[in-house]
Write a structure and sequence with these properties.
The chain has 290 residues and is α+β, with helices and mostly antiparallel strands. Helices cover 36% and strands 28% of the residues. The chain has a 12-stranded mixed sheet, with helices on both faces. The longest helix is centred in the middle third of the chain and has 15 residues. The radius of gyration is 19 Å and the shape is globular. The model has no long low-confidence stretch (mean pLDDT 93).
Length: 290
């Protein structure tokens, strides 16, 4: 029986009705939750997989203080928690019988949750990835700038954009939309993919944008095929997409970078992105057994 202060919420609309104000109060820290939930709200609950997403909130004195969600089969996404809250969340998830293949949260929260999971289950979490969240300060064009130009992807680019999206998700071992073609269709229709192309019109890199939610837009994914890296194409695509986000009126332009890749972190900082905080992703052995 679940006696924790955490409450399960039945669907994304109920979740946003209950936790929306809390999430929008700190849009940068809650960027993944905001943008994924916007996708679930507008494109349906099966956009990431066959199973229904799960949602929950922690309330005190009638106010939401923390939240989580998961789109099976992917990892749990959690807002910042104290160590005590992380412990109570592990108890809640096991009480309601949820499998927890992994957790993605700010670094302190992720470590606290992993430790609580270890203490409760005896399983040994494995650090999968460390990410740095960046916020755009003053946009600067990369120097030296590569030859070519940025343009918005069109219907004729659909196969390329879908293929690059699949390659990106596979390369980072992360969560993605279940249908790369549908992702490409939606982003192209919304004019949210920038392609950087050479002077002779060959696309060499892409940078996508999430829809604007709570005044923030996140750049991602940024992808350049391996054989074309190191030439400034990704930096140029990122700068071009960031300029489009600013033109749309975003108060904050954000992106994540893998801390194991110093090249990409350096590129983003050179075009004007500044660190906000670090996140961590853990794989968790075992699953909830009730």
């Amino acid at each position: 029986m679940d006696t924790s202060p955490w409450l399960r919420v039945p669907d994304v609309r109920s979740f946003l009705a209950r936790a929306g104000h809390f999430l929008r109060s700190r849009p940068a820290l809650h960027t993944v939750t905001l943008t994924v939930c916007e996708g679930l709200r507008t494109r349906g609950p099966q956009v990431y997989g066959d199973e229904a997403p799960v949602f929950g909130v922690l309330e005190r004195d009638g106010e939401v203080r923390a939240a989580y969600f998961r789109t099976p089969p992917y990892r749990l996404i959690v807002t910042p928690l104290t160590p005590e809250e992380a412990g109570s969340l592990t108890e809640h998830l096991r009480a309601v019988g949820d499998p927890v293949p992994g957790v993605n949260a700010d670094e302190a929260t992720a470590a606290a949750f992993a430790g609580a999971w270890r203490a409760r289950t005896g399983d040994e979490p494995r650090l999968h990835e460390r990410l740095r969240l960046y916020r755009l300060g003053e946009l600067r064009w990369p120097e030296p700038a590569p030859e070519g130009r940025g343009r918005i992807a069109e219907a004729r680019d659909r196969e390329l954009v879908a293929r690059w999206y699949e390659e990106f998700v596979r390369a980072v071992g992360g969560a993605g939309h279940r249908d790369a073609g549908a992702w490409a269709d939606a982003r192209i229709a919304d004019r949210r993919v920038t392609l950087w192309e050479t002077p002779d019109g060959v696309p060499v890199s892409m940078a996508a944008l999430t829809p604007q939610v709570a005044g923030q837009i996140r750049v991602g994914p940024v992808y350049t095929p391996a054989e074309l890296r190191g030439r400034g194409f990704g930096a140029a695509a990122t700068a071009h997409a960031s300029r489009a986000a600013l033109a749309e009126g975003a108060a904050e332009v954000l992106l994540f970078a893998d801390l194991a890749n110093p090249t990409s972190n350096g590129v983003y900082q050179r075009v004007g992105f500044r660190p906000v905080t670090d996140f961590a992703v853990y794989e968790l052995a075992g699953a909830a057994d009730g």
